Amino acid sequence: MSVATSTAREVTRTVSTGRSKDKSLGSLVFLGALWFSLFFGVMVLLVLIVDTAIEGSPRFDSALITEYGSRVRPESTGFRAGILGSLWLMVFTALFAVPLGIAAALYLEEFADGDRWWNRLIELNLQNLAAVPAIVYGLLAVAVMALMGFGRSGIVLGGAIALALLILPVIIITTREAVRSVPQEIRQGSLALGATVWQTTWRQTLPSAVPGIATGTILGLSRAIGEAAPLIVVGLAGSVRFDPTGVMSEITALPMMIYSLTSNSQEEFRTAASAAIIVLLIMILGLNALAIYIRNKFQKTW
Amino acid sequence: MSTHPATASTRPANSEGREISMMTGLHGDAEREVPDVPPDPVMEALKLNVFYGDFHAVHDVNLSFGKHEITALIGPSGCGKSTVLRCLNRMNDLVAGARVDGEVTYHGQNIYARKVDPIAVRTQIGMVFQKPNPFPKSIYDNIAYGPRVTGMKVDNMDDLVEEALQGAALWDEVKDKLKQSAYGLSGGQQQRLCIARTIATKPDVILMDEPCSALDPIATSRIEDLMLQMRDDYTIIIVTHNMQQAARVSDRTAFFTARPDETTGNRTGLLVEFDRTSNIFANPADKRTEDYISGRFG
């Protein structure tokens, strides 16, 4: 066997099993450190979830999701308003953020001249926007609502604006990635047939990028659904006792209800809050699972 | 059995013209009479210069492309032959910083004139790329795409699709799976699909940028046969790295080379020799052509 072949086999084995035959002390210590970090991260998460689940286990009943919050009967208080409120918020957040985000990403990828200073400025800002604290978007949404002349606070519209602003950078960045991964050959093929840039974008690039865009959008929404800070600023109540009926409805959201109950002195409320955390986690995991499913199912290989 | 261009143009696409080409096949058209100068030139490049930013990519190219002829552009890598090809249907417009000096005429009209719409140019002058690039759609939709986006008046799309696939010698292989994804086809079939897709918009000129370089020899020979058939209906300009291919299919050959700039070292492409293919390969006038053809260079 030639040296090249044996080396190649060695590399293949190392790559395929993730194991290296390097047994020096330094590498073992480093490997140990890696394992510890992994163990630590996973353990913290696991302990948190198990602890919360145990604490909330007495309240895994149907009343948890079908009943409104109740001060009088803490043992059967429910999160109906919060769950519905969160779902409404997600729908309107998506309605605001997705078209805007896709449009912005398409402009930057397909139409903008990257050498122009204003396009570079937009790009720089986009990177920064993704790092802005959520609460700032809440303040921004309050300002927007005030400018539009909406006196009432804590309504679907205000919350959705705050969350849409929050996830807009995420959607723009993931959409750009998805659009960029469509091969240049496809665009050229379309243009060479006499299609305009607009037709090419609309009929070739965008449809091919849809799985990536959907994945990014869902991941953005799963971040938004867990946010409480911007909603507090927008003035969402900790509890309401009716279902949302429109964009002007006053609502609450699941994280808001959890937040207001965890600080309650009554044991039953804290138990209910733990159970609600599990509900929220299930919603988030469900969204993430959907994102992974879409990514795997529709992923294109060129 | 000469297929003189003047008679070829009046003949229906799939009569004896096709059989003659099939018979001559890979052995080229030694018997074909190629006039001294390109007859009835469909396209001409006049003092064509191309720049990418400050980089002078192509210097003073003059070429003319005869009607129903196959013209091959050959030369070493970086000699600007693909750049010249891309100028012929304004695909170079899409490269950031690209600038074209001089004229490219199509039936006497400068396609770089201010009032000319590059979209319209591309519907008349189609292009087939190096790597087969079917759209991620069905075979049928790949063909129908061009006519749909250009708003071509089509009486019956099914007929047009069949006609285009027939024209690219692909119909028999795909007629039962028109609704299936084009990605299920082999590389050679995909490339013929791309040719069919180009034919569907009824162009006049077809540009091919190394159309066989990603294909195996059998698929290559099928594409070459196809080019010889298509010559009866289209003017074909092909860039190729494969000199045997140029010898087999083309009527006329343009040899390019790259000349390094004395001060910057940037290599500028220029046209060395443009003649009948038989002359280029049998007795080239320029020493550089001879060196390249005989494999002493490039």
From TrEMBL, chain A:
Gene Ontology molecular function: phosphate transmembrane transporter activity
Cellular-component GO terms for this entry: plasma membrane
Keywords: Cell membrane, Membrane, Transmembrane, Transmembrane helix, Transport
Segments traversing the membrane: 28-50, 87-108, 129-148, 154-174, 272-294
Residues in ABC transmembrane type-1 domain copies: 83-291
Annotated compartments: Cell membrane
Signal peptide annotation: none
InterPro entries found in the cross-reference section: MetI-like (IPR000515), MetI-like_sf (IPR035906), Phosphate_PstA (IPR005672)
Membrane topology according to the record: Multi-pass membrane protein
Chief site of localization: membrane
PANTHER family associated with the record: PHOSPHATE TRANSPORT SYSTEM PERMEASE PROTEIN PSTA (PTHR43470:SF5), PHOSPHATE TRANSPORT SYSTEM PERMEASE PROTEIN PSTA-RELATED (PTHR43470)
Family to which the UniProt record says this protein belongs: Belongs to the binding-protein-dependent transport system permease family. CysTW subfamily.
Role: Part of the binding-protein-dependent transport system for phosphate; probably responsible for the translocation of the substrate across the membrane.
Name of the protein described by the UniProt record: Phosphate transport system permease protein PstA
Native species: Nocardioides szechwanensis
TrEMBL record, chain B:
GO molecular-function term, one example from the UniProt record: ATP binding
Keyword Translocase: yes
Annotated keywords: ATP-binding, Nucleotide-binding, Translocase, Transport
SMART domains: AAA
Domain of life: Bacteria
Pfam families on file: ABC_tran
CC annotations in GO: membrane
Biological process according to GO: phosphate ion transmembrane transport
Domain ABC transporter: 43-283
PROSITE patterns: ABC_TRANSPORTER_1, ABC_TRANSPORTER_2
UniProt-listed InterPro entries: AAA+_ATPase, ABC_transporter-like_ATP-bd, ABC_transporter-like_CS, P-loop_NTPase, PstB-like
Protein name: Phosphate ABC transporter ATP-binding protein, PhoT family
Upper classification of the organism: Bacteria, Bacillati, Actinomycetota, Actinomycetes, Propionibacteriales
